[in-house]
């Protein structure tokens, strides 16, 4: 009989729905996600024990004092095992799925109860929904809604709906037909008959259906943890995949407590909403023994509601005003809170690299979220855009099938480790087994089993498709599918008993350090060449997150670094992966800044962090630029610098008396010679950071026949007898007035207008715009030469003196007071290009925005902080 391609038809149908009804799925996703986020915020906001009190009060109202006490103790236990957040996530999932299910199931059940044809059509559909394995619903859920909460909720709704529909239909059909006929006989409208007769009498059965809906929803949201749904399901899934008994038990007990609470409360709710149940409850209270009345007494609805409201208000107030919990330490806020979704396979190197990047991204101001997935779900989620990146793709061999299927929707950010190898390993005490060929005749030794890992892993597919057939092992051996943790657990048990065992392994892996194992050689090359470990991302990730993508592309770890990181995480224990990463980073100082360098430098603290140097500056472009640059660098290194503008004379006087610690614009040996000669006994020359400066007078290039200072003579009328100067106390102004003018005979024709550098530049800009002649005092380097076409007037008599250097000058006690800062300044140098671009960036930022201009320049020059102020690790 020819094979019926049913699976292909279903697959085509799913693809067609996804391609043509994406708008509908997006709408559903938005609604469901919004409901979940809102409810989860409400449930997760209050203090755990306070919210446990609210839940206990509801239990007291519904069932009595003893159930209330037990409920409080149960939720307190969940809090004590640090699963409160996950439990509230699960409760939110259950309530959202339950509400949606009831909204659809009850009307559908009513319709079926009133229409035999509808009932006949719905019955097989409900049978199909109820008997289909729950895991199957997750597959189309991923295709339609991606990974996360939404596919879990949708799958839960589908899985839990049948009992809600069936019990509603059954309850209404069981209402005594004579009562319905009596209502009809009195002329009651069918809608009023439904609302006033049938539904009240059917309510106990309907509530039983609601109870079943809630229970099935709870069981399904745990399964939904496999596709990234938050909550206890994720905890249980991780425990299963890692065979972690402790984590599994803790997650399981939390699920049990939630299940018991929801079951008892939904069952008891019937007693409050159903008239028949309320009468039965009243009779039960009347029969209660007098000594036990306190256990059966329940507060009135009004009292219970007041109590809940009061506790809720207290909880809200505590959440608003009492939350002192600190977030992750941010060393450089590059991410500014941007979320990043990271997926990982529960393999050691995947866990290690993922939590390493989680820690690094948190330090850089991002908000990363990590979630464990099966391999297939991981690739599907990335291709759909639900996962931003992952760091554990074994290519070109192990994950070749997934890469071939999804490569058009993914980005390869490069490899960070390699080469790797896949292999089958046996303990060294197993004699006569050195290669895969040796296994063929030793099947009885290994009980005809090779212990494998996750069934979806690329290595497992290679074992099944190539390795075992290639060596004839498929005839006598079976490949045991499970998980990496299960394989390691079995290896540990067999090794302890010295029993023969063959396991699928890979290199690097810490198991080779813990056990004495033999890697079976692969002479036929069935496993292929060694893989590399690549980082993959969704399409468009590099464009959306260029900084993170750049870090990942440059990410490298050697075998020693990787194995030590894995070991640190193993030592920290399950659930404390990030603590292990932090311990590893502490033992590897500087690694965070190497892996995730911050634009503008990393924020390592200097040895003298907390010191507060007083920095003076002149209102000159190079001094403004370098002063604000050093202010930024020092603040990143933990210093507390203060800056203040001075006139030249005041600056030197202040430095000599210690009122100013340091300044960066000492023009020596010529321009500021007189000040240096006067105060040098109380100052120290830390060193020069810029060479080949010059002082000059400049004119616009449209002024003809003026190429040197000598050409100015006789042309005072052209320039209205003025040379536009700068601050009167500057060395250049004093040299100009005392030497330059007289040397060229200009002192009788020209006056030098005192002012400021900004005023001179403003006049230059006005004159240049009008094409008016103007002569200004300038110096090199200066950004004005880039903005305007100017002629530096030659100084053949060298009246301005020789070229200056820009020096850092400081109070004589500066080296002793700030030794680290002094050391940085001694080695500091800037090129003409660096200084010019820094000045231009500050000019672009505008007056008053100097710090923004500096930051923009630093962002364009990554690593400048480490270059200027290196901190020994």
From TrEMBL:
Protein's membrane topology: Multi-pass membrane protein
Alphabetized CDD domains for the sequence: PBP2_OpuAC_like, TM_PBP2
Keyword NADP: no
Stored PROSITE patterns: ABC_TM1
UniProt keywords, alphabetically: Cell membrane, Membrane, Transmembrane, Transmembrane helix, Transport
Domain of life: Bacteria
Pfam families recorded: BPD_transp_1, OpuAC
ABC transmembrane type-1 domain ranges (all copies): 87-266
Primary location recorded for the protein, binned into one broad class: membrane
Residue ranges of the TM segments: 49-78, 90-114, 134-159, 201-227, 239-262, 303-322
Subcellular location: Cell membrane; Membrane
PANTHER family: GLYCINE BETAINE/PROLINE BETAINE TRANSPORT SYSTEM PERMEASE PROTEIN PROW (PTHR47737), GLYCINE BETAINE_PROLINE BETAINE TRANSPORT SYSTEM PERMEASE PROTEIN PROW (PTHR47737:SF1)
Similarity section: Belongs to the binding-protein-dependent transport system permease family.
Name of the protein in question: ABC transporter permease/substrate binding protein
Organism in which the protein naturally occurs: Streptomyces niphimycinicus
Lineage: Bacteria, Bacillati, Actinomycetota, Actinomycetes, Kitasatosporales
């Amino acid at each position: 009989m020819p094979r019926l391609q049913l699976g292909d038809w279903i697959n085509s149908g799913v693809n067609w729905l996804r391609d043509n009804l994406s708008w509908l799925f997006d709408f559903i996703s938005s609604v469901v996600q919004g409901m979940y986020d809102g409810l989860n915020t409400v449930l997760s906001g209050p203090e755990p024990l306070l919210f446990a009190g609210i839940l206990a009060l509801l239990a007291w109202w519904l069932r009595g004092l003893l159930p209330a006490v037990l409920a409080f103790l149960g939720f307190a236990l969940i809090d004590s095992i640090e699963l409160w957040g996950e439990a509230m996530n699960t409760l939110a999932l259950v309530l959202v799925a339950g509400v949606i299910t009831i909204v659809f199931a009850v009307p559908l059940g009513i319709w079926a109860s009133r229409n035999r044809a509808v009932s006949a059509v719905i019955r097989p559909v409900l049978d199909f929904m109820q008997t289909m394995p729950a895991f199957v619903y997750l597959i189309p859920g991923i295709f339609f809604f991606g990974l996360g909460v939404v596919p879990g909720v949708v799958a839960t709704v589908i899985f839990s709906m049948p009992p809600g529909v069936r019990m509603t239909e059954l309850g209404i059909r069981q209402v005594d037909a004579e009562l319905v006929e009596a209502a009809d006989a009195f002329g009651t409208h069918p809608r009023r008959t439904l609302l006033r007769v049938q539904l009240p009498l059917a309510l106990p059965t309907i509530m039983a259906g609601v109870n079943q809906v809630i229970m099935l929803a709870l069981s399904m949201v745990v399964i939904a943890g496999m596709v990234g749904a938050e909550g206890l399901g994720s905890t249980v899934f991780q425990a299963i995949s890692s065979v972690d008994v402790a984590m599994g038990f803790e997650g399981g007990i939390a699920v049990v407590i939630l299940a018991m609470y929801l079951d008892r409360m939904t069952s008891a709710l019937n007693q409050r909403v159903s008239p028949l149940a309320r009468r039965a409850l009243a009779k039960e209270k009347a029969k209660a023994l007098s000594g036990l009345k306190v256990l059966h007494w329940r507060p009135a609805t009004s009292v219970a509601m007041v109590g809940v409201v009061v506790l809720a208000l207290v909880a809200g107030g505590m959440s608003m005003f009492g939350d002192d919990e600190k977030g992750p330490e941010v060393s450089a806020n590059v991410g500014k809170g941007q979320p990043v979704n990271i997926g990982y396979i529960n393999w050691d190197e995947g866990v290690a690299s993922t939590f390493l990047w989680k820690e690094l991204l948190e330090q850089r101001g991002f908000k990363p979220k990590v979630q464990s997935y099966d391999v297939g779900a991981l690739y599907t989620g990335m291709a759909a855009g639900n996962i931003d990146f992952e760091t554990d793709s074994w290519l070109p061999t192990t994950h070749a099938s997934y890469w071939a299927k999804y490569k058009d929707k993914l980005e390869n950010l490069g490899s960070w480790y390699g080469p790797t190898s896949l292999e089958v390993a046996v303990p060294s005490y197993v004699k006569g087994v050195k290669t895969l060929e040796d296994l063929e005749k030793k099947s009885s030794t290994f009980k005809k089993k090779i212990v494998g890992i996750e069934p979806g892993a690329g290595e497992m597919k290679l074992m099944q498709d190539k390795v075992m057939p290639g060596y004839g092992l498929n005839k006598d051996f079976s490949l045991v599918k499970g998980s990496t943790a299960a394989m390691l657990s079995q290896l540990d048990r067999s090794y302890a008993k010295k029993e023969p065992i063959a396991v699928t392994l890979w290199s690097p892996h810490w198991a080779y350090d813990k056990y004495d194992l033999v890697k079976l050689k692969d002479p036929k090359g069935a496993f292929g060449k060694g893989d590399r470990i690549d980082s993959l991302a969704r399409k468009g990730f590099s464009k959306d997150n260029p900084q993170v993508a750049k870090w990942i592309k440059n990410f490298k770890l050697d075998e020693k670094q990787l194995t030590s990181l894995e070991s640190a995480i193993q030592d920290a224990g399950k659930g404390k992966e990030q603590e292990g990463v932090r311990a590893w980073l502490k033992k590897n100082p500087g690694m965070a800044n190497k892996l995730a360098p911050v634009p503008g430098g990393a924020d390592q603290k200097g040895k003298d962090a907390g010191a507060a140097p007083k920095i003076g500056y002149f209102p000159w472009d190079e001094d403004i630029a370098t002063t604000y640059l050093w202010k930024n660098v020092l603040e990143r290194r933990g210093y507390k610098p203060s800056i203040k503008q001075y006139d030249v004379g005041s600056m030197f006087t202040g430095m000599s008396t210690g009122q100013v610690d340091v300044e960066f614009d000492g023009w020596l040996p010529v321009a500021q010679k007189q000040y240096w000669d006067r105060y040098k006994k109380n100052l120290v020359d830390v060193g020069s950071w810029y060479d080949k400066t010059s002082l000059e007078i400049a004119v616009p290039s449209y002024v003809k026949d003026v190429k040197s200072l000598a050409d100015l003579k006789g042309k005072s009328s052209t320039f209205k007898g003025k040379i536009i100067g700068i601050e009167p106390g500057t060395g250049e102004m004093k040299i100009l007035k005392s030497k330059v003018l007289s040397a060229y005979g200009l002192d009788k024709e020209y006056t030098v207008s005192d002012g400021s550098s900004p005023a001179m530049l403003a006049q230059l800009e006005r004159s240049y715009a009008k094409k008016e002649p103007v002569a200004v005092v300038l110096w090199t380097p200066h950004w004005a030469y880039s903005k305007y076409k100017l002629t530096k007037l030659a100084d053949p008599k060298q009246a301005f003196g020789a070229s200056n250097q820009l020096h850092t000058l400081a109070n004589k006690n500066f080296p002793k007071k700030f030794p680290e800062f002094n050391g940085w300044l001694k080695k500091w140098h800037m090129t003409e290009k660096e200084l010019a671009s820094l000045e231009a960036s500050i000019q672009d930022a505008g007056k008053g925005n100097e710090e923004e201009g500096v930051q923009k320049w630093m962002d364009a020059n990554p690593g400048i902080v480490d270059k200027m102020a290196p901190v020994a690790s």
